[in-house]
What we know:
By secondary structure, the chain is mainly beta.
Amino acid sequence: xxxxxxxxxxxxxxxxxxxxSTSGVQMAMAQQTPNRKVSTKADTISKSxxxxxxxxxxxxxxxxxxxxxxxxxISKEVLESRPVPNIMNAMQGAAPGVVVTRxxxxxxxxxxxxxxxxxxxxxxSIPPLYVVDGITVSDQVFNTINPDxxxxxxxxxxxxxxxIYGARAxxxxxxxxTKTGTKGKVRVSYGSIITSMKPLNIPKxxxxxxxAEYANIAYNNAGQSVYYDDIDMGFIRNGIEWGINPxxxxxxxxxxxxxxxxxxxxxxxxxxxxxxxxxxGGSDKVSYFASMGYLQQNGLFKVGPDAYDKWNTRLNLxxxxxxxxxxxxxxxxxxxxxxxxxxSVENGGSLSxxxxxxxxxxIFNPDGSFYGAAGSSGNLTYMYQAAAGFNKRxxxxxxxxxxxxGKDIFVKGLTLKAVYGRENYYRKDKTFNRTVKTYDWxxxxxxxxxxxxxxxxxxxxxxxxxxxxTQFQIxxxxxxxxxxxxxxxGFQWEDYYKKTETASxxxxxxxxxxxxxxxxxAKYKSNSEGQTGWAQQSYFGRFxxxxxxxxxLEGTIRRDESxxxxxxxxxxxxxxxxxxxxxxxxxxxxxxxxxxxxxxxxVSYGEVANANSRDLVGDFDFLNGLSFGTNVVxxxxxxxxxxxxxxxxFSSNRLKWERVVSKNLGLDFGLFSNKLTGSFDIYRKDNRNxxxxxxxxxxxxxxxxxxxxxxxxxxxxxxxxxxxxxxxxDFTFNVSGNIADSxxxxxxxxxxxxxxxxxxxxxxxGYEMNTIWGYKTxxxxxxxDQLKGVPYNGSKxxxxxxxxxxxxxxxxxxxxxxxxxxxxxxxxxxxxNPRYTFGFNFSSKxxxxxFSFRLQGVGxxxxxxxxxxxxxxxxxxxxxxSIHLDYWTPDNPNAAFPRPFVGGGHNFLPSDKWVLNGAYxxxxxxxxxxxxxxxxxxxxxxxRLRFYVTAEDILTFSKLGVWKxxxxxxxxxxAYADYPLSSSIAxxxxxxx
Length: 993
């Protein structure tokens, strides 16, 4: 963590001391005037043995020393000067029990997910509730916040901390506090970072000769004719890329492309630019913080559109209207622009096409036209990116709030507050699918092949929503001798209205510069409109009690009523209670253990719900739904085609929110004047009314409705530890680390979820979620004797194949009845839930040089990759890659892969051979900076100038073995052709005027 010298004109020196707590790093400054001893915060803490750090919690703030719940904080120092486009990048590993994952490296689409303290529902990850400056916001607002605008992030983890937010806090609560102005001289800050990015996991392809030789062996082993005959092999060995092979076609040329497919498509490096400018200042009456940020990021593809940019502006203004009344205004605007091809990139899109292309097929014919005679294994990605159309998208978000706060109104200690917040979101999409002609190359020149997008189309999609939040809150603080009380109560109203519009046209008469007006006939035009909305009203309250700073009690209550549930079931109550004991303030404790600065055990109980997941309960799921259909024929002789209405959805009109009850036992501690600090928590979460679909006879014919009946239990623990120190006069350092674990168990779903299948099983009663099952193996079949003893797995099995173990001794390889009681030869292989997640931080300063690094990782995880990646030649579009050259032969009996075999699925069944160890340690960030000394800047109009070099994700240690560099350990189970994550190195500068 860096230290920036700041030298006011009337001071000689600024002494800077760093303190590391479990929540992050705080920086304190002490000033020295002439002939006066320097006093640092360390001296103060050493004497008082107290920490008065203030932590933002739900609807207020609390001293950390008085907190009785589990809350983690991430300070602004963790977020600053990081070459990341999204604050979630910087949050990885920063707080115990907060697991941040990503599945994509696509510019503007990294698909982050935050899970706080493990699973809260059988229905997948429940997103946390995001609160920015006291206003609940969408994930859209959270994802677009400029990291440089953030002062602090608080994460409410246990039920007692989150219960004040009630029904929407089942996934935890993430509270962001943005920067504000400060009294004093106007300060202008500018920062710029230029980043070079490199993909982490692009598979290396075989050369054409290697691919041809591998394919021929695979075809031979499968008892089929070789794919490349002697004429083909001769062309390949002689580097001839177009040749007539009379054994195959006397007119069309055979192709033998020997250019590296990926080098034709992908950048080795791509770039990101970030610029941030802020102004802050204030007086006794008014303070302000204003900022503007711009981010531009290019993507992996060399050709076609693959870019993202973002503008951020913010104005935070605070004005004292009187001695007692303050007005705060927060205004933020963000605009994102996405420039992409019309074809999706992931999930069967352009990346899948690139990975599935056979090396032999070229992009272009000799005359420059697109080659298109290869079908599903053709090299079409270049054409998709460069010529097949575009998708242009823009998102705009206005997030504004105003609040009036009156302190000591009527009586001392009484505070009244009114807040109004509003988010306006606008999205515009334009997608054009252009018809592109492709050709086969023959002795007579080009001949038309199947075109791409044979029917061109153009569509426009608009989406907008308004989310409003109104709050009224009253706080009262009072004391009676050593007894201190705080009472808070409030009301909140939220409403949300969303509108979508879609218009499209096909068979356009113009194949460029598309317009909805260019459809060749009115029947090729269509449009639709959608509307939805919800509202929620809430009452909430908090009571805290403190006696002499030693004994701490807190309780909260909240009542939520939501329009998304049916009448009679819309309201619910959520309660919490917690207690803590500052034992270090007891004289007997201090006498016995004087080296403890803090020793605070705490216990809590809290109730929340999973209403924040829109996937569980829709806005109007309590109503039966109707669907429109067309083309019902009525009447004689074919009759007329008619539109009809049918039942589309059966309601779930007795649903309640999934309710999560949390219990927590924790300990906060500090030793040696808080040079060493830490915390430990153990917890349990119970969801006893999970929403599960009712099991109905198949003749029902519709999607089964939900019912509250599932039971999920999650247990876990967290530990964090930090130390700050000094060596000599000039070297200061901070070290901190955290580790956490959680494990869940599905105790009941519907009484029938006991089936076990090979691969990943989302839910099996009696097991944790997302378990992986497969077969046990014992190397390869090395000889004929071993072949006789293997369980029957089809007629394809031969020497060099995977040797499966017959676990139940029946001579067959199968899953038995595929139940928990009888799962045949299947064995439990693990779970893809991350376990033992951890982070480690180190920061230091020596004179004007600062250095820091951060590690993040997962200690245990099991997952499987897609068979489209590791099963070569399973189909025409599944190609071998370089690691498949390490295959079984009599001379290579312990190879990484079995013998090549076309369609050899028998070798790639889910088994212990193909599950991957997802444990890893990643160097998330390393940074080296240099700041000019005050003496060097005394004649310059600046107060700070710092240069730095920083890198992100540049080093990963994993146990992926042969898959390193091809698969990333962060990737989701069964991932294939996801946009690769990237490492980066960046150069930056910070200037304060």
